TrEMBL record:
It is found in: Cytoplasm. Keywords: Cytoplasm, Hydrolase, RNA-binding, tRNA-binding. The gene is pth. One of its GO terms (biological process) is rescue of stalled ribosome. The active site is at residue 22. Its EC number is 3.1.1.29. Catalyzes the release of premature peptidyl moieties from peptidyl-tRNA molecules trapped in stalled 50S ribosomal subunits, and thus maintains levels of free tRNAs and 50S ribosomes. It catalyses: an N-acyl-L-alpha-aminoacyl-tRNA + H2O = an N-acyl-L-amino acid + a tRNA + H(+). The record marks 97 as: Stabilizes the basic form of H active site to accept a proton. This is Peptidyl-tRNA hydrolase. It is an enzyme of class 3 (hydrolase). It comes from Spirilliplanes yamanashiensis. GO terms for molecular function: peptidyl-tRNA hydrolase activity; tRNA binding.
């Protein structure tokens, strides 16, 4: 219970990316920071913003992370922070957008492949392990022939934005469940819906 958790929201820094599908990880950790009453600030040892606190009274310490590198270089700040805060890889959770999951569905897993996600690929390489947990936020496949790279860097549609706040809130609940209950109980609780 004493080991801290590193909860990493994947995204791209800068206002122009803030509403992008690729930045849903940032949206989730920002909501978690609000729940903890914590503020993000620049970290002295890593190119990232961090917020620290506890997700619940008596719960484990949580370090929320928004890497300030671009998505494909997210791993270096995550690895630096996991060393700095002495977080074992099994206590690292990546929150990210997922093309292969329909919009609004959430999937949780530990380890496995990166599915072409550059942020995950960078994290796996820098951490030297794929055995961290992932909270996958479904964004669905791009419509028609749109390039997936353009699709992830576009903003959520008006129809998607109607549900987005609720879905980000639910994703934050899933992250809390991974920390407090573990990956398998969280899969059992959330994968049906």
């Amino acid at each position: 219970m004493d080991e801290p958790w590193l909860l990493v929201g994947l995204g791209n820094p800068g206002r122009e990316y803030a509403g992008n599908r690729h930045n849903v990880g940032f949206m989730v950790v920002e909501l978690l920071a609000g729940r903890m009453g914590a503020k993000f600030g620049r970290h002295k040892r890593a190119h990232a913003e961090v917020a620290e606190g506890r997700l619940s009274i008596g719960g484990p310490r949580a370090v929320l992370v928004k890497p300030l590198t671009y998505m494909n270089l997210s791993g270096a700040p995550v690895a630096a922070l996991s060393q700095f805060f002495k977080v074992p890889v099994e206590n690292v959770v990546a929150v990210h957008d997922e093309l292969d999951v329909p919009y609004g569905q959430l999937r949780v897993k530990r380890g496995g492949g990166e599915g072409g996600h550059n942020g995950l690929r960078s994290m796996s390489k820098s951490l030297g392990s794929k055995e961290y947990a992932r909270v996958r936020f479904g964004i669905g496949r791009p419509p028609g022939r749109q390039d997936p790279a353009d699709y992830v860097l576009s903003d959520f549609s008006a129809a998607e934005r109607k549900e987005l706040e609720f879905l980000v809130d639910r994703a934050a609940d899933v992250v809390e469940s991974v920390v407090t209950k573990g990956v398998e109980p969280t899969q059992n609780a959330y994968h049906g819906s």
